[in-house]
Design brief:
By secondary structure, this protein is of the alpha+beta class. Among the domains are: 142 residues, DNA Polymerase III, Chain A, domain 2 (Roll), CATH 3.10.150.10; 77 residues, Orthogonal Bundle (Arc Repressor Mutant, subunit A), CATH 1.10.10; 106 residues, no CATH class. It is 34% helix and 26% strand. It contains 13 helices and 27 strands. A 9-stranded antiparallel β-sheet has the order 9-5-6-7-20-19-18-12-16, with helices on both faces. Strands 2-3-10-4-8 form a 5-stranded mixed β-sheet, with no helix packed on it. The chain has a 4-stranded antiparallel β-sheet with strand order 15-14-13-17, covered by helices on one side. Strand 24 and strand 25 form a beta hairpin. Helix 7 crosses helix 8 and helix 7 crosses helix 9. Keywords: Metal-binding, Zinc, Zinc-finger. This is SWIM zinc finger family protein. It comes from Diaphorobacter aerolatus. One of its GO terms (molecular function) is zinc ion binding. Pfam families: SWIM.
């Protein structure tokens, strides 16, 4: 998917003994977005901003994909001796052996001649890439971060190179002494690798100015030498990854209030020992009214987090959650000294986790996929676990306009503004997040308007249906393979149980069950099919779970309408 950016000049950094200025070049093809502020020097804002943006950079350049051994030399040796080896196996007479030797000598001479002719090219190519990495690393980082100016904060977002880690840095306007005009909006910024070194120079004895340079918006002609355009072929996985992150952040999770020193102990353990074999999981053992216990595999070393606590109702049963790709947590090391609160959101075993580091005026959110090799877009279908309430296009538009008017709002606030139920608001916001127009802010537990791209995504770009499971679920509904589900309504959650025919004359059934919160978020599910037995919910629900939910949706909507009408009648009686 090709996207076009237009910048006027490049991001500039001015550094003197008394002041420092970052002038970011925004994308001119987007609506004007402006910000101009000087960091406060009378507190810790300068330090929190420095560490937060440094953590963002660490995620941008992170690439933890497993790389095998370099077999270039072996393949070259094999190519040189392939004919000789083949001739040795196939030769069965003396004259064939002699002919094979002659051909081998001739091939060796031709290869030596080829290597001699091409060696200057290969040497120059290697020198170019070595120079490029040392002197112009900007060309190595293609995906510029996204920056959003909200009425009360700046929001930086970026993905890692392996697309398994997401990072957002939220900087409150209270960290700045505003010195210029502000226009809210979202834009891409021209981000250079050398900015990392400049971030390290932020100090409290000199003024630090952050500015979205507005001068480029005054350019009227395309022949200005400072005006440059970039065409970037964005991978589909990058786009889908951003959408899946937003969907995953809005899902219910097990939340742990982790003490900053416990984060330090986690990083210290990961630094002190390097596993040579599996399992490599970090296991959270959670029990009501008890401090969480973190176990490091394969050593079974236990970390008792006596100053941390599990948030949520005391009636929650004891459980164990395992996460992989734990070395990505070392990104948080620099933030520990400034952290005032750390909240860990665990979606489940092998599922994403979110680490929210609150430093006061700056909040950093690190989102990690199930494991390092499992990027956010390869197989994740977390939007299928979001509420599937009955909403119309007019409802979706109303919720979108309400959020645009205030930029940030909770589901309860949007429900009050639009007259819809909370479940319907969540369903509407899922549509906006899938279109790249909104994001869920875990630190504040509210939705925020953020236009990831200039234009809303079409259904084809969003790849809806996004997986074979979705299309297969619709086919199961159409063919009548789903039996009438049984729905049990309880206080705070709903359990849906049903059977789905295996088809092709098979008289057996798939036994499927799912649990929903009061807001229709899916919190747990199970099925007897092979897909679920192999993947659980790591890759999202299977086609049978999706089909069961669709089959039960009418009854769920009717039950919700009954509750709403009953509540209104009681309010009328009280009045």
């Amino acid at each position: 998917m090709e996207f076009k950016y237009q910048y006027y000049g490049a991001t500039q950094v001015s550094d003197t003994a008394a002041s420092q200025s970052f002038s970011f070049a925004p994308d001119l093809l987007r609506p004007p977005t402006r910000f101009d502020g000087i960091l406060r020097r009378d507190g810790l804002a300068y330090l929190q901003v420095r560490e937060g943006l440094s953590a963002l950079h660490d995620v941008v350049v992170s690439d933890m994909r497993t790389r095998g051994r370099d077999k270039t030399a072996y393949r070259q040796w094999l190519a040189e001796h392939e004919s000789q080896l083949l001739a040795g196996f196939m030769a069965d007479t003396g004259h064939i052996r002699e002919r094979a030797k002659e051909i081998t000598v001739e091939l060796r001479r031709l290869r030596e001649s080829k290597a001699k002719v091409l060696s200057p090219f290969y040497r120059a190519q290697r020198q170019y890439f070595d120079w490029l990495y040392q002197n112009n690393r900007d060309l190595w980082y293609v995906l510029d971060p996204v920056i959003t100016v909200h009425p009360d904060r700046l929001l930086f977002e970026a993905f890692s190179q392996d697309e398994s880690s997401y990072c957002s840095v939220s900087i409150q306007h209270a960290a700045f002494e505003h010195a210029g005009e502000m226009i809210c909006g979202t834009t891409n910024i021209d981000y250079s690798a050398s900015l990392y070194e400049e971030f390290q120079k932020i100090r409290n004895y000199k003024d630090t100015r952050l500015q979205l340079d507005p001068s480029g918006f005054d350019v009227r002609t395309g022949d200005d030498p400072g005006l440059r355009e970039e065409k970037i072929e964005l991978p589909d996985s990058w786009l889908r990854g951003f959408l899946q992150v937003s969907s995953a952040m809005a899902l219910p999770a097990t939340v742990i209030d982790l003490h900053p020193m416990d984060v330090f102990n986690i990083c210290a353990q990961l630094r002190s020992q390097r596993e040579k074999h599996g399992p490599r999981a970090m296991r959270f053992e959670l029990a009501p009214d008890a401090a969480p216990c973190i176990v490091f595999e394969p050593w079974e070393k236990r970390l008792q987090t006596k100053r941390s606590q599990l948030l949520g109702p005391a009636s929650t049963p004891a459980r164990t959650i395992r996460i992989w790709g734990r070395r990505r947590l070392l990104t948080l090391e620099r933030l520990i000294s400034q952290a005032t609160r750390v909240r860990v959101h665990l979606l489940g075993t092998g599922m994403p986790s979110f680490w929210v580091i609150d430093m006061g005026l700056v909040t950093v959110t690190l989102g990690l996929s199930g494991w390092s090799a499992n990027d956010w877009a390869a197989s994740a279908r977390f939007h299928l676990m979001a509420p599937q309430a009955d909403v119309k296009d007019a409802d979706i538009d109303a919720v979108g306009k309400a959020l645009q008017s205030c930029w940030q709002a909770s589901a309860q606030e949007l429900a009050a503004m639009t007259g819809l139920s909370i479940a319907q608001v969540h369903a509407c916001m899922t549509s906006w997040m899938n279109a790249g127009r909104a994001v869920y802010d875990l630190s504040a537990e509210r939705y925020a308007w953020r236009e990831l791209l200039r234009e809303p995504l079409s259904a084809e770009q969003r790849m809806v249906p996004a997986s074979p499971e979705e299309e297969a679920a619709l086919n199961l509904i159409r063919s009548g393979a789903v039996a009438v589900p049984q729905i049990d309504f309880a206080d705070g959650f709903t359990r849906v149980t049903g059977r789905i025919s295996r088809g092709n004359g098979d008289k057996r059934w798939f036994e499927t069950q799912l649990e929903l919160t009061a807001d229709d978020h899916m919190t747990d599910a199970r099925c007897t099919c092979n897909f679920f037995q192999q993947n659980r919910l790591y890759r999202g629900p299977c086609q049978h779970i999706v089909a069961l939910r669709l089959a039960a949706q009418d009854a769920l909507d009717a039950h919700r309408r009954t509750i709403v009408s009953t509540s209104l009648e009681k309010q009328g009686e009280i009045a």
